[in-house]
Specification:
Elements: H1 2-13, E1 53-63, H2 72-85, H3 97-100, E2 108-112, E3 125-129, E4 158-163, E5 171-173, E6 185-188, H4 206-215, H5 280-288, E7 321-322, E8 327-330, E9 337-342, E10 352-356, E11 362-367, E12 372-376, E13 383-389, E14 394-402
Parallel strand pairs: 1-2, 1-3, 1-4, 4-6, 7-14
Antiparallel strand pairs: 5-6, 8-9, 9-12, 10-11, 10-13, 13-14
Bound molecules: arginine (ARG), zinc ion and calcium ion.
Length: 403
């Protein structure tokens, strides 16, 4: 009812454009009670000031025809694009100088789940051939009983449903604190990712960036009212949404100064190619959702992007699973520096690399922040070293000869 009401308000205040849905699910913020389960035995903790927060994702692809059954490559392109937008590694050329100091690296990354809710291996992509030809924004796609696919534990997984939304809508999201079985993001199949059959100008993955912004508590810049408030101090007030890609400055009647609207913000309605930033205020708001007692806190302990534990899974081989993957180390042998690189940034970003000598003493430790990392080794004595990437049950081991 509330959803319908806010949709109505939206449509009264702003004449609804065919391709826009301007509602997020209404929800009250309630304290989050952390629950333990067999596959998740770590105790709750608070966020660390600058830690990279990893959010495990499950994609429910609901398709009625082959075109809607988007490829793994399309899904992966979206994850990679999110990891650029939320780490300020995207193309920021569209940010005017006056706003550039406000632009922030949110230090949040996303990974496809490797373990399902009952501890089995998964690709993090669920495909379901469904009867429904198109869906309204009323959450029916989130329930198998209504022809969709049930939510995976929304305390540990960000659920994203890909389907055909009616009315040309691009997507919608729940806000933190909404009912667990409806928690997540819904995205139109042809605006998801950066490769595949995509609908320009929504072909740069920004619908997901925007919707996940809502999922982490962000509101539209104009607060869904004429000259409304998004409750973030460093986003300037603006009269309403922007479409296309305005020329800078776009001064609207509520812009407080000559810089005008921040139309290149991910929380406006501009074209994908026009959007390029979250502010520091938005970053702080999103990260605060992961703090103790807040709606996304349980994600700090989600193990969903680790492979199933060896005792349970088919890869049982002692205590540690060494993952063979596309991580490369070069040059090797090396003298002054090495590069650790992976095709899929999820393999490296946010993980810690530790270099040990042959007697197992730790020589160097560095947080990997990119899909390509340069590590100085010029002050290490020559010899053989072992490089460990990651923690716990899932680690990668590389060998290095220092000259
Ligand atoms: N209309 C959607 C919403 O308000 C998303 C808009 C996304 N914009 C984009 N350029 N992809 O939630
Ligand atoms: Zn929105
Ligand atoms: Ca603001």
């Amino acid at each position: 009812m509330k959803i319908i009401y806010s949709l109505l308000i939206c449509c009264l205040v702003f004449p609804c454009k065919a391709q826009r849905i301007c509602a997020t699910n209404e929800a009250q913020l309630k304290p989050n009670l952390y629950s333990r389960s067999a596959t998740q035995s770590l105790s709750a903790r608070d966020t660390l000031p600058d830690e990279i927060i990893t959010v495990p994702v499950v994609i429910h692809v609901l398709y009625n025809d082959n075109i809607q059954n988007i490829s793994d490559a399309q899904v992966i392109s979206q994850i990679e694009s999110l990891n650029k937008d939320y780490r300020k590694l995207n193309n920021t050329r569209n940010i005017p100088t006056v706003f550039s100091s406000l632009s922030a690296d949110a230090r949040i990354i996303f990974c496809l789940a490797k373990t399902d809710p009952i501890g089995r291996a998964t690709t993090g992509i669920i495909r379901k051939n469904i009867k429904t030809k198109s869906w309204s924004a009323n959450d029916q796609m989130k329930f198998s009983a209504s022809g969709g696919d049930d939510t995976w534990d929304s305390k540990r997984y960000l659920n994203i449903w890909i389907c055909n939304l009616s009315g040309g809508s691009l997507g919608y999201s729940s806000l933190p604190g909404s009912p667990a079985d409806k928690d997540g993001v819904v995205i139109q199949y042809d605006v998801f990712g950066t490769t595949g059959n995509l609908r320009a100008p929504f072909n740069k993955g920004r619908t997901a960036t925007h919707e996940i912004g809502h999922w982490l508590g962000l509101l539209h810049l104009w607060g869904d009212a004429l000259c409304g408030d998004d409750l973030i101090n460093d986003t300037p007030p603006q009269r309403s949404y922007n479409n296309g890609c305005p020329a800078f400055p776009h001064v609207s009647t509520c812009s407080i100064n000559a810089n005008g609207d921040m139309f290149m913000n991910f929380m406006d309605f501009t074209d994908d190619d026009c959007m390029s930033m979250f502010t520091r205020g938005q970053k702080n708001k999103m990260r605060s959702m992961f703090a103790s007692g807040n709606a996304r806190n349980s994600f700090l302990n989600s193990q969903a992007c680790n492979s199933p534990s060896p005792e349970e899974g088919p890869m049982a081989s002692g205590n540690v699973v060494i993952i063979k993957s596309a991580v490369s180390l070069y040059p090797n042998p090396a003298k002054d520096f090495i590069i650790i690189e992976a095709k899929n940034s999820v393999e490296l970003i946010g993980k810690t690399m530790v270099i040990f000598n042959t007697v197992g003493r730790e020589i160097k430790r560095q947080l990997l922040t990119s899909s390509k990392n340069r590590i100085l080794i010029n002050n290490m004595p020559s010899g053989i070293y072992v490089i460990k990437i990651g923690e716990g049950k899932e680690i990668k081991i590389l060998r290095l000869l220092k000259q």
